[in-house]
Design a protein that fits this description.
alpha+beta; 380 residues; 5-stranded mixed beta sheet
Amino acid sequence: MVLDPLTLLVLTTAMAAASALYLVMEWSSVRERSLLLWSTGFAIIAVGSTLALLRSRGYVLFGIWFPNGLLIAAHWLFLVGVARFTHARLSHAWWLLVVVWLAMLSLPEGPWWSKVMLGIQSLLISAVTLRAALLLRPQGGALSVGAAQLRSVLLAHGLFYLAKGGSALALDAFVNLANFRGAVILVSLVEGAMAIMLLAMSMIGTERHRREEHIAQIAARDPLTSLDNRRALYLRAPELLQQASVASPGALLLIDIDHFKQVNDLHGHDAGDRLLVTLSDLVRAAVPRGALAARLGGDEFVIMLRSTSAAAAQALGQDLREAFAQQARALYATPDPVSLSIGATLFDQPGTELSHWLKRADEALYASKRKGRNRMELVP
């Protein structure tokens, strides 16, 4: 098969239409608006590529300049989709591209008209595409594989159009580009077909990675309190344990609510759930950065602190007990006071598993229960 402009336009139309259909199918299952915006962009490219077939019959406006305008609109939708994906706000200046495009069409024709139109169109596409790539910069961490691929494709695509626009406006002053018109068109069509394929693949990969991350986050969260669950605790605790040493120990606090059953029996399970959420909010506010907080199940919670001391762990436990007892009294009346019993231990042996430290904290917790509850026992 010969890669002439007509064949490449047909291939581009088919690939853009297939990409639009696939992305809209993905959108129908996950309802991510960025997928719908990207799908619409590819659908517009398919329409524009179909209209571009008219250029061979001499329809300049609807065979060349109108399809090029649709190409700008498609890339603008790619930018809006990336902004939606990254939760970024676009300046109102990006919404003026339609006005710029209509103003260009109203310019009087002349010997320079085609060159100026081609240059400005290419620069507009380049600006929109490069802006989309810059929106995908890492924020507080590395980009996902799909997002990094999408950023690279957008950068390469934007730089290609930047070079194309620059050559149309500047290089033509030194080189007669009309002699290379056929080669320029062919290279543009090949780059466009490759860009469609790579953009569609990376867009789908980007959204799928985000969906998988979201599912993983749900699997690691306790649905009631939004703290880590037992599974997440066992996955993340080894990192904290490995950082501990005799010179810089960590602390593990095992927390249990005293007389929690009375709240459920007297006020209902919804009241018990509210009390658990109250405690989780207090825990979340009390733990320092880099600590772990998890709900083991029922009314048992765990806090793991890094680089701390017995005094600091005791102080955190004391603050939690006082704050929780005050809120529990205000929320629900019970025959016996609802309070916290805490068992704690310092961990300073990197090779020891979490279950060992949980067992030691559990022994300290039962010691605090035996001594009258509403207290904290710390095993050295």
